[in-house]
Each structure stands twice: as C-alpha cells, then as structure tokens.
Amino acid sequence: MKRLAFAVLLLAAAPAAAAEPQPTPLLSIALNADIRSSNPGVQRDFNSDVVLQHVTEGLVALREDQTPAPMLADSIEVSPDGTAYTFRLRDGITFHDGRPLTSAEVAWSWKRYLDPTTQWQCLDRFDGRGGPKVLAVETPDPRTVVFRIDRRSALFLVNMATIQCGAVVLSPSSLGPDGAWVKPVGTGPYIFADWQKNRYLELTRFPGYKPLPGDREGAAGGKQALAETLRFVVIPDRSVMNAALLSGQVDIVPDVGATEIDAMKAAGAQVTVTPTLSWAVLLLQTRDPLLSDVRVRQALARAIDGGQVAEAASFGLAAPNPSAIAVASAYHHGDAAWPAFDPAEATRLLQEAGHAGASIRIQTNNRPTGQYEAALMIQGLLTGAGIDAQIDTLDWATQLQNYREGKFQASVFTFSGRPDPALAFDSIIGSKDEDPTNQWEDPQAIAWLAEAKTLEDKAGRQAIFDRLHARMAEQLPVIGLFNPVQVTAVGPKVRGYADWAPGNARLWGVWKEP
Q: In this structure, are residues 231 and 202 in contact, taking their beta carbons and an 8 Å threshold?
C-alpha cells in the first residue's frame, strides 16, 4: 500500500499546465523502438499507435473514462434495435491533402478495412467472427454515413474508438496508383512528414486542422497543436534516453525506470507515475506437448508469486493482478480467486503429471518495459519449484512476430490497454486455428465472451467477467502478472503533458516555455 500511495502522490504532484500556452517550434519524445508500420491498424504495435493518433482520426474516440465520444462525427444516432448507426459528419473538416471530409471517404476507408487482403487487425470485430458483421456502409448524402450491422453490440462504438484498431478515416491518397500503401493522409492535427527508420520520425503541424471546442478529453475533445514539429526519436537504451532528456535533446521520456525517478527529479525533470490498462502476462502455448497438460500449467501458476514478479518488474510501483480486468477498471474484483503461491504443491502437480524436472523456455525482450526483469524473476521462482526454466532474450520485433504466429513455448508479454473487459478477454479467447494469437480455446469461455459483447447491463456483464476469471484460474491458458505503470519524465520547461490509463502519449495541448 505504501508503494501504491507513492505512485498516486507522484501523480498528484505533477505540475499543471501553464495558463498561457505558447507556440513551440519543436517538441521531441523518445521511443524505445521504431514504429512497426505507418498503416493504422495494419502491422501495428504500441509505438505505431502513439505516433499515428496524432495524424489520423476516426468517427469516434475514447474519453478519459474509456467511453466513446464523437470525433469526426458531429452526432450519432442508434436505431432502437441496435442494428443501425447513423453518423452526421462535422462540417469543414479537411484531409492533409486538402480534400474535404465527406461520407465517401468514410465508406472508402471502411471498404478497405473490411477487405481481408488489407489484413486489418480488427477485421474479426466487424465481420461477424468476434463481433457484429457490418452489412453495409451507406452514404445517403455527403455528411451522413449509416452503418448497418447484423446484431446488437455493446462494443461497436468502443471497437471503432480503440487505438489498437486504428479505425480511422483516410484520404484515398494514402495509397499509390497501384493500390499499395504510401503513408497516412488523415485529418489529425499533425501531418506525417519524415520517417528515417530506426532513427526518428517527424510530424508537422497541419494548419488546416479544425479542433473540437473545449479541453483535451482522453483521445477526444479539443486537440490544440501547439508544437510546429513533433519529433519521435528512437532510443532503445534507457540510460541513453534519460541522458537525452537531461541534456535537452528530447523533451519527453515515457519509459523511465522506477529506480531512476529520484535522480531524474533531482536533475530538474518532472516525473509522473500513472496506472495503466496494459496487462503483463506469461503466455503459455497450450498446444505444446508439455503445456497442453493443465496440471503442468497449474504447477507453473503455483510456482509463480505474482507479487514478487510485479515487484521485480516495476520496483514496487505496480500491484500484482492475475486478472484480464485491469485494476483501474470499474469491473475489477481485487479478491478474485487465483492459485496461491505454493512451490511444494507445484512440485507435487508436476510429479503427478509425470513431468518432474520439466524444462521450459521463456521468450522475452530487453526493452525498458520490465519484461526482462519479470522473466528473470519467473525463472528463479520456477527453479525453486524444480522446473528448468531457460530465457531466450529476443529483439522486440522477433518476439512480436513469434506471438503473432504462436511460435513460443512460454513468453513474457504485455498487452496494450483495452478500454473494456470484453476486449481484454478478447485478446486471449478464441480458436488458434483462426488466429494463432488466441491463447484460450475453451468453448464455454468463447460463448460467455460472445454474450458479454452483446449485453449492455453492467451487473450482467460483471457476472460474466467474474465467471470468465474463475474459469481462467482453473484452466490457466495464460498466467496474469500485473498492470504496468507509466513512468514519464518531461523536461523542466514542458507544460500541458499528462499521462492517462491507456498509456499512449498525447502531444496535443503540450508546449514549452521559452
């Protein structure tokens, strides 16, 4: 409790934005790795999402509380049966190429997303597999778009808004004459300008941007582009990141280590610690000959103390959480059942399964996100239960590709924050034959998740999420570890910066004093 209070104290002590924002020539932020792609929702990763949210916008966006709000839409009307969504577009919005936003561009963008050849990451949420099927995108006039879906959904707008999907509206000039991807031409406050791979990426302020009135509200609300240029600098080494901040070469470092907080503050940096919706887990390949035996998975869960892992990975700033429902979520139950730490019982289960002294290989990476430290602690705990655990430290791109293809025995992995518990469970539930990233193939879990996606009653959804967690604690397709915190340091002259639960940096409304 002392550690958590410390985190809240740091957050509360963050300086407020100055009363008089000023134009800023350059604002720079460190990235721990290059973006994977400039194509929203396609070949994406977290860093890609962070950059592209400044360039592109969708019909809706998430507020601070993770509920969807209109963005390019001026209003949204839902039919009584929940199968028709009518969006009235804001007037006077233009793309970076000067094209005015009309319903035609919305329909074009969605036709592209729904084409399987695009390989959009969230296709299954809109084609009837993991959510309702979009039957039609109609354009009765230039400012009106009507989405017709095959069934009621509690998550239709949330899925549209979530940053992982990248369901943005693009200009057709984002593609070349041959239909190949070129770069994102969106409606956001910044233009995608220059990408020097593995070095830096620059965005320039879009002078034609028309912000919503009011203040920043999550990824929605008013977006004031106060910096003329945003520069995202790729710095894989955490110590180099910190040195770059203290020397003024970058203005924001969103990956500060917990042990570096005091030194950064002493050097004049402003530091905040914010709980996130992200979820660190130990993925278990349930089709592996060893891990297909639930007794082995139960042994691993008994051998791993989530508190020690969270302590090692976050230096005490994060609390253990085995649940797919983030601690920050209104649906989270802190007393939900989970196998207790019991190395002796773990050894007994392995002997019962005929796998005493079993060997397991754990993939991780050395990015400054605590995953390597978590893997080291897990290795030590498993060794204490008589399990021969070996660590394979990979570059992030390789580990991510292995995750996408299911090429691992065990893997310390972090899911980026999902705004709704159903989406968090959706990250792990489903058939591996359909998608190798699915971890939990239990038919009952699949059925319960489908029900949660259609139910709008909070109490009813809570009951389903509780049942899912209890079943996950029995079958253990993954071993949940903790919700990482966001530790961010900004330069002494930076004003207006604030982290939020999804963890992705927002640079609109941010400026520097001279």
A: yes
